[in-house]
Task: inverse folding
């Protein structure tokens, strides 16, 4: 079983993070957790419709990569159908994400996208994608234009890095292999981040692939492949920082396999009966938020009272996001066909 794979060991004493960095990561992860908890509440109260896939348990990956190593608002982020928290880490305001989930005109996708299609040009959020592996070639396109602008058009300011997130199930799809091959050939500035949460809906990872250790697949593309404990935000940050540095230096892409776990079912419509309680307990004990909180206190970087204060502040942000979404207008029927094509600025 994959949960028995030895998690990569990261010596947190070598992290050398400041209080500011530690608290920023903690706040970002807490925002993701409390936001998703509120989504579950709103879904069951009938405020949201369709499929809603929550990110609880995987916050260390989003925060470690986007907030820990990238430049939110400048670098590009490409997500999956589990995209709310990626959008939050990328800087999309919580009220705009919540309004999108409510299908309101004030949402980041103007109410057109809903849970699985979060998009924000302003925040370089390239979208969530409902089809498995659909976002991988899109992310490669963003990375290609960065390289093209710099090397062909002579734009020295074009040094963005793209982070492409996808799950373990996507690694058996053709887009994965074709795109990684092109990215390696062209040395694109991109991070391929596999959030291996062990399950592709109800299919256990080790039953679906001939090589469960996904990061090893990078070798056939002559690409750097790294395995990391996705439940340790500092470990993810360290690995991602190295990958981002290589990308900005023109050394090409990196495949990062983050071993993580979703604390809820595949979606809010999933009764979550496929996974054993033993497996769940194994991963629940590795909660990335509790792990970081313990580290920050142990290293005297903060006090428990300050962490509790951050939690209260984040909860207020989430509550205000719900109020904003509830009071926002529905998209006007007269604009049904708007945004089908790009508009002139």
Result:
């Amino acid at each position: 079983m994959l949960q028995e794979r030895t998690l990569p060991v990261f010596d947190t004493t070598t992290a050398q993070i400041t209080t500011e960095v530690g608290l920023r990561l903690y706040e970002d992860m807490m925002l993701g957790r409390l936001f998703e908890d509120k989504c579950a509440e709103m879904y069951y109260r009938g405020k949201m419709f369709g499929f809603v896939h929550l990110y609880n348990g995987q916050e260390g990956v989003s925060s470690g990569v986007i907030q820990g190593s990238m430049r939110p608002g400048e670098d590009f982020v490409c997500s999956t159908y589990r995209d709310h928290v990626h959008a939050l880490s990328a800087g999309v305001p919580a009220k705009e994400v919540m309004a999108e989930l409510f299908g309101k005109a004030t949402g980041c996708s103007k109410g057109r996208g809903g849970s699985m299609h979060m998009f924000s040009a302003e925040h370089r959020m390239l979208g969530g994608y409902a089809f498995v592996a659909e976002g991988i070639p899109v992310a490669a396109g963003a990375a290609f234009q960065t390289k093209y602008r710099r090397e062909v058009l002579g734009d020295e300011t074009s040094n963005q890095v793209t982070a492409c997130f996808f799950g373990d199930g996507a690694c058996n799809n053709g887009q994965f292999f074709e795109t990684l091959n092109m990215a390696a050939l062209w040395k694109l500035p991109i991070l391929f981040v596999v959030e291996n949460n062990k399950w592709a809906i109800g299919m256990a990872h080790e039953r679906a692939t001939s090589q469960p250790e996904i990061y090893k697949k990078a070798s056939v593309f002559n690409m750097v492949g790294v395995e990391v404990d996705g439940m340790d935000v500092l470990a993810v940050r360290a690995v991602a920082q190295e990958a981002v540095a290589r990308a900005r230096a023109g050394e090409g892409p990196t495949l990062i396999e983050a071993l993580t776990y979703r604390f809820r079912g595949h979606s809010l419509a999933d009764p979550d009966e496929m996974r054993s309680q033993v497996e769940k307990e194994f991963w629940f004990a590795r909660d990335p938020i509790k792990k970081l909180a313990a580290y920050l206190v142990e290293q005297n970087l903060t006090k428990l009272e300050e962490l509790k204060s951050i939690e209260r502040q984040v909860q207020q942000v989430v509550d205000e996001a719900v109020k904003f979404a509830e009071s926002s207008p529905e998209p006007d029927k007269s604009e049904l066909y708007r945004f089908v094509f790009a508009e002139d600025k």
Summary: The chain has eleven helices and seven strands. The two ends are 53 Å apart (CA to CA). Residues 277 and 293 are 25 Å apart (CA to CA).
